[in-house]
Write a structure and sequence with these properties.
Layout: H1 2-17, H2 23-52, E1 74-77, E2 82-84, E3 93-98, H3 105-116, H4 118-123, E4 126-132, H5 136-146, E5 152-154, H6 159-163, E6 178-182, E7 188-193, H7 201-209
Parallel strand pairs: 3-4, 4-5
Antiparallel strand pairs: 1-2, 1-5, 3-6, 6-7
Length: 213
């Protein structure tokens, strides 16, 4: 009887140590792994969806500015020149490129591309400005590093970015990759946010060309 009890005890201990080798244990582990993978997948979808809509929580999108009078502003360039939207009323269209600025390589690549087509924009009576919210000294460093001479307007208190519903994307306190086109009458004729952080210049030029149609 003692040997039988001892054998039974050894068998139970052995089974306890080798529980994970059983088909039932593998099914349990696989089920738990599947649940964990599902949670990760759902989280990834939520993050991508949040980025796709520009990361905004409520509030109007840039498209809601369409056909409305553009919010007025007066901002300084990096060289200290004051630029007001009203300066161009009746004279020029104005293309505003809101972006993350310092530390955002795609933003500077976009500015570089815009600068390469300034003659084409000028031929369409359009002034082009980049709007960033970082400290001027940081922006000067980046502009110098990228060789950018495109006028950069400094929205230090983010008020203009907020007025144009461009604030909030990858960073809540910075503009996303957003274009706004204001025509000569001061009305917003086109606006679009680019979560991919890349806009084709040709498509932007087409929006300006459409103003004359």
């Amino acid at each position: 009887m003692a040997k039988s009890r001892q054998y039974s005890s050894i068998r139970k201990n052995s089974e306890a140590r080798g529980w994970w080798r059983t088909p039932r244990a593998w099914r349990r582990l696989a089920g738990r792994a599947g649940i964990a993978a599902g949670v990760v997948a759902v989280a990834a979808v939520i993050i991508l969806a949040f980025r796709a809509v520009g990361g905004r929580e409520g509030g109007p999108s840039p498209e809601n500015l369409m056909s409305r009078e553009a919010p007025g502003f007066s901002l300084s360039t990096l060289d200290g020149r004051q630029v007001s939207l009203s300066d161009f009323r009746g004279e020029k269209n104005v293309l505003l490129f809101f972006n993350e600025g310092y530390g955002c390589a795609p933003c500077w690549q976009q500015a570089e591309a815009l600068e390469g087509d300034l003659d084409a924009f000028s031929a369409l009576d359009t002034e082009v400005f980049a709007i960033m919210v970082d400290a001027p000294d940081l922006l000067e460093q980046e502009a110098s590093r990228w060789g950018i001479t495109l006028p950069i307007l400094v929205d230090s208190d983010t008020s203009v970015s907020q007025d144009y519903d461009a604030l909030g994307g990858m960073h809540a306190n910075k503009p996303n990759h957003t274009f706004v086109l204001v025509d000569k009458t001061g009305v917003v004729r086109w606006s679009e946010d680019y979560p991919s952080m890349q806009a084709d210049n040709e498509s932007v030029l087409q929006q300006i060309q459409a103003l004359g149609s």
